Amino acid sequence: MARGLPKKAKLRDVDKIIAVSSAKGGVGKSTVAVNLALSLAMQQKRVGILDTDIFGPSIPKLLNLTGGEPNVTESNRLIPLSNYGVKAMSIGFLLPDQDSPVVWRGLMVMKALQQLLHDVEWGGLDVLVLDLPPGTGDVQLTITQQIVVDGAVIVSTPQDIALIDAVKGINMFKKVDVPVLGMVQNMSVFVCPNCNHETHIFGSQGVQREAARLGTEVLGSIPLHPSICTLSDAGTPVVVAEPDTANAMAYRAIADKIIHKLSI
Amino acid sequence: MATANDIPPSLSKVRHIVLVLSGKGGVGKSSITTQLALSLVQLGYSVGVLDIDLTGPSLPRMFGLESKKIHQSSQGWVPVYTDSSKRLCVMSIGFLLKDRGDSVVWRGPKKSAMIRQFVRDVVWGELDYLLIDTPPGTSDEHISIAEQLRDAHPDGAVLVTTPQAVATADVRKELSFCRKVGLDILGVVENMSGFICPHCAECSHIFSKGGGEDLAKQYDVPFLGAVPIDPRFVLLIEEQHATAASTVGEQKPDAIDGTGFSLIEKYKECKLCPIFARITEQVVALTKDKAR
């Protein structure tokens, strides 16, 4: 066993690293991570996205890269796949079959994660977005202990049951000395496409309240709109498919804030 | 047929064990587990609920039991009962945490050990149904519970998904996992299946549609039903907390937590209750012949 905590290292060729986390599943981490990455790319930044969810990798689907198989360099480093101007790596690209589950205990997960963290030839990035899996377990611990993460963005929906986990996530980052850039309130309000009536399906203002309590900023609020889901499923995220709509602008505004905060 | 010696003693008087799985996070496993438990209680069964999501335990909050602590008896841990009738009890790591913001940042072996304790060292007593709520994924927790329950012959698993492709993709993996470990699949529930605008009654498929049913067909398993989004269910759960907070200090005779708010009773007024009754009836029918 190692004595003391492992030393954090910077990734070669990568200037800044942002972790998109939530601790709670299904609040939209991957959707936010992908749209953020695409928004950053739209600002002429060199962007990569690393899908660290070993059990439920969503990035291949969201970036329309399912079935893609990465090549390796002469020194056996993985070459990321690209789409929409963003480089991506995910275990989804390394599995033989989309439906096969990854039924691994922690140790094997760590080995796979090590490869994804250290053996990818990014080729020079201004910013690498990490899409974290739900929870506060092995994966999150390994990432935050081994590499320097410049900032964490916490995604949550407004309801209490999601915020409980979001707070755990924030406390985890504090434990491992990763600065929290702020929170994103996802699925904030549903606007009926038929009559424009607003319904707060998952509660309202929960993220604002919690952020105020914790002394952290709300980077933005993203509404619940059926097209965000349909476009995601089609592999054409809203920032790419409908860049000037209110939905896309919500993500783009958050990206601008992050650029400013981290001086990317 | 398993002999009484094979089954862990803590589970020897539990008639049916059902796991609630997904693979994808945030599809509503805990909500579905909660509603399944409430519906079974309404049908007259005694129910225990085990929460093996160690890093994101939601069940104490779902049942309004957040302030409760577990008691130790000479036979083991006593689960937390929702009221004095003792029809429904819950076990979760949430009860062991000092503060709800405390994070459990554990690696695999520690998680596996905890799950072993939850299965073997809890005084479950005599139960008709033990429901097990799981975290997303197919990792240590899932492998551990499959191992721990091998001698207890669980009835099977209910898979929860939302309609969209990013969700069903992960649930397919979970279905494969079940087949791999020899866990029967009781069926698929499609959650967040449509939202009816309270203003104009137009149904919007916020998370796409049909994915759950297609998934069930593809894997040749029963489609147990589609559950729409009902904001009032979210409010019902949050309301419990508000009631508990406002009646601190008052003692009401019917509820163990002293607030008089009974989730079991209040759920009957919820729109999702009749929808769930149909799903629960199917689960009961599918597990009827599997008594151990």
User: Class of chain B in CATH?
Assistant: Alpha Beta
Distance between the first and last residues' Cα of chain B: 8 Å
CATH fold-level assignment of chain B: Rossmann fold
- Report the portion of residues of chain B in β strands: 15-25%
Strand order of the largest sheet of chain B: 5-6-2-7-1-8-9-12
Q: Cα distance, first to last residue of chain A?
A: 37 Å
Put simply, the count of helices of chain A is 9
Indicate the low-confidence ranges of chain B by residue numbers: 1-5, 248-258
Average pLDDT over all residues of chain B: 87
Rg calculated over all Cα atoms of chain A: 18 Å
The spatial strand order of the largest sheet of chain A comes to 3-4-2-5-1-6-7-10
Supply the CATH superfamily name of chain B: P-loop containing nucleotide triphosphate hydrolases
Which class best fits the helix and strand makeup of chain B?
Answer: alpha/beta
Walk me through the structure.
The complex is a heterodimer of chains A (264) and B (292). Chain A is globular. In chain A, the strands form two sheets. In chain A, strands 3-4-2-5-1-6-7-10 form an eight-stranded mixed beta sheet, with helices on both faces. A two-stranded antiparallel sheet of chain A has the order 8-9. In chain A, strand 8 (190-191) and strand 9 form a beta hairpin. Chain A has nine helices and ten strands. Chain A has helices spanning 29-42, 59-62, 106-118, 138-146, 160-175, 206-214, 226-233, 238-241, 246-262, and strands at 14-21, 47-51, 81-83, 86-90, 125-131, 151-156, 180-185, 190-191, 198-199, 218-221. The termini of chain A are far apart. In chain A, helix 1 crosses helix 9. Chain A has 264 residues and is of the alpha/beta class. The model of chain A has no long low-confidence stretch (mean pLDDT 92). In chain B, 52% of the residues are buried. Chain B is globular and about 55 Å long. Chain B starts with 13 loop residues before the first strand and ends in a 5-residue tail after the last helix. In chain B, the strands form three sheets. Chain B has an eight-stranded mixed beta sheet, sandwiched between helices. A two-stranded antiparallel sheet of chain B has the order 3-4. Chain B is α/β, with parallel strands linked by helices and 292 residues long. In chain B, 35% of the residues lie in helices and 18% in strands. In chain B, helix 1 (29-42) packs across helix 9 and helix 3 (108-120) packs parallel to helix 4. Chain B has a single domain (17-287), classed as P-loop containing nucleotide triphosphate hydrolases (Rossmann fold). Chain B has helices spanning 29-42, 59-62, 108-120, 140-149, 165-181, 211-218, 231-246, 263-266, 272-287; strands at 14-21, 47-51, 71-73, 76-78, 80-81, 88-92, 127-133, 156-161, 185-190, 195-196, 203-204, 223-226. In chain B, strand 8 (156-161), helix 5 (165-181) and strand 9 form a beta-alpha-beta unit. Chains A and B meet through helix 3, helix 4, helix 5 and helix 7 of A and helix 3, helix 4, helix 5 and helix 7 of B. Chain B: Keywords: Hydrolase. Chain B: This is P-loop containing nucleoside triphosphate hydrolase protein.
